[in-house]
Design a protein that fits this description.
Number of strands: 10
Shape: globular
Structural class: alpha/beta
Order of helices and strands: HEEHEHEHEEHHEHEEE
Strand content: 15-25%
CATH architecture: 3-Layer(aba) Sandwich
CATH class: Alpha Beta
């Protein structure tokens, strides 16, 4: 339905959507809640990085909540970046956001991001590749496979993010990543092995460990 309407509300804000991006979901608002609780200085000049920016719902919402922050978002899909740029302009944060083509599957993907950052956020692909066709039809048939396919075990993107995180986040900075059901423990292990202090995961409204939080 969201693709038909061309819009979905997230955190009380209207986001344009198209078949190039995932439809923003209430589960992802857990990450926004975590960021606001863990970074209470709302007027701080934070630098925020969003890996796999999609519609921009995470990065652009955070830029609205942190009025002096600036953000960088990357996505492998040119079509997704068009949607994110349109949303950034519509929400009045286009001047504080830089949206770049980038693919963490490619060598040296992190070198052009201009870090380090105070906060790294991501809702990466986390569905096991073999399980995608068995998802609800409106997801399996219409949402972009690039944003769903997390590889054989659903965790490929998290390994890549964890390996790069130390070079992308300032000392004392934070990493917040959304997780699929049952994945938080393994993701925490990856991030802890990269030298971060991992905290208790944040649960969504359904009681699922939805967001892994760590400090550099």
């Amino acid at each position: 339905m969201a693709y038909i309407l061309g819009e979905r509300e997230f955190w009380g804000l209207p986001f344009r959507v198209s078949p190039a991006v995932l439809v923003p979901r209430p589960d992802s608002e857990t990450l926004i809640e975590a960021a606001l609780a863990l970074m209470p200085a709302r007027t701080g000049p934070w630098r925020i990085l969003d890996l796999g920016v999609g519609s921009g719902c995470l990065l652009l919402t955070l830029l609205r909540e942190f009025p002096n922050a600036r953000g960088v978002g990357i996505d492998a899909s040119a079509e997704a970046l068009e949607v994110a740029r349109a949303n950034a302009d519509a929400l009045g944060v286009g001047s504080r956001s830089t949206l770049l083509a980038g693919d963490w599957r490619q060598p040296a993907w992190a070198e052009r991001l201009g870090g380090p950052f105070d906060l790294l956020v991501s809702n990466p692909p986390y569905i096991e590749a073999a399980a995608i066709d068995g998802l609800m039809p409106d997801v399996a048939r219409f949402e972009p496979r690039l944003a769903l396919d997390g590889g054989p075990d659903g965790l490929v993107a998290y390994r890549t993010i964890a390996a790069a995180a130390a070079g992308l986040v300032v000392p004392g900075g934070r990493v917040l990543v959304e997780a699929g059901d049952g994945q938080a423990a393994e993701i925490s292990t990856f991030i802890r092995s990269a030298g971060f202090a991992v905290e208790a995961p944040w649960k969504d409204l359904g009681g699922i460990d939805r967001v892994v939080s760590a400090t550099h």
